[in-house]
Amino acid sequence: xxxHVTFATVVWQRAHFGMWRVGGKTLVVGVxxxxxxxxxxxxxxxxxxxYAKLEVVYNDxxxxxxxxxxxxxxxxxxxxxxx
Length: 83
Description:
Layout: E1 6-12, E2 15-22, E3 25-32, E4 38-41, E5 53-65, E6 68-82
């Protein structure tokens, strides 16, 4: 286990996120447990920092627009933020 890796969980209106941060990169994995679309302001994620790049590595029902994530009902997404 790398002692420099931090982990946080966030729940935003039944959308659940895990965030692993090391150095200037953060891996975010999220799932929407709602039966409808859930909008999530990315700034609400714990330990949020401004990023230079957002790279989606897995997408099953998510879309990004203007600093927000929209997750479809029971959708999930994985992305990497680089500062």
